Amino acid sequence: MADNMKGIVKAVCTSPAKGTEKKPVAEAFFIVGHGIEGDAHAGKWHRQVSLLSYDKVEAFNALGAQVEDGAFGENLLVEGIDFKSLPVGSIFRCGTVVLKMTQIGKECHTSCAIRNRVGDCIMPREGVFAEVLAEGVIRPGDEMTVELPAADRPFTAAVITLSDKGARGERVDESGPAAVSMLEEAGYEIVETMIIPDEPLILKKELIRLADQRSVDLVITSGGTGFSMRDRTPEATMEVADRNAPGIAEYIRMRSMQITDRAMLSRGASVIRKGTLIVNLPGSPKAVRESLSFILHSLDHGLKILRGSATECARK
Q1: How far apart are CA 194 and CA 233, in angstroms?
Q2: Whole domain around residue 249: which residue ranges?
Q3: In a domain? residue 302
Q4: At what angle do helices 285-307 and 246-257 cross, to 10 degrees?
């Protein structure tokens, strides 16, 4: 994939409300850590700016749709760059503006304006999202360049705590912060943390999103690995897996058995979905810290293999 990919901004679009078609504007001011000034999707999150390939819209219009610029909810319509083919972490430069790609595609909202009008929307499968790293103004006709992420960039991680009481605000989450602290100390970039109830469907949805759209290197879950009827984390994890990676979970149990016999009751799984490694940990802060201390030093090599920056090697 070329590291010197270039494109031309065909349209800059904004909207005052989410779920509506954006309208072309003569120029837009991009604010660091926020997005486009005056745009409904701006804010302190990872989807501050949306980008779509002009070529994809032209192909869609060739089928008879004839949608206008901004109709798919895109902020930037760019000719010559196939955004979907780029990895998360790619850098887009346009004048003084610097954007970092954070997500590929999104969940389709059946109530979106363009889908209701023409029966389809390509943004969920072709669009990408970015955060603003450097401010400035972008206008139609400006050149955009692409820089691929460095092979030795820090690994990204997300931490999910599963707790019915925690999700209701009835219990302070200590396990998630414990995992975040250890991961950050090990050099990981934490891109998301969340507390969700012990609901398999919710967990599966988040795991799929983090792997498929955000391309997170490592997802750590805490909780839901015991014998309670509500403990369904391993089952939900296995259901979204492309491949099993049982050695990690087995090693955690083996090392934990040296501390307490009850470690045999932990049912945590470890799997791979696309380029994402998902590891289930127990729910207690102590068990989270112990489990991560067992595996963090060896995860580095496995994650590099998943990313394609290292190769398998046999011990001599």
Answers
A1: 15
A2: 156-307
A3: yes
A4: 150
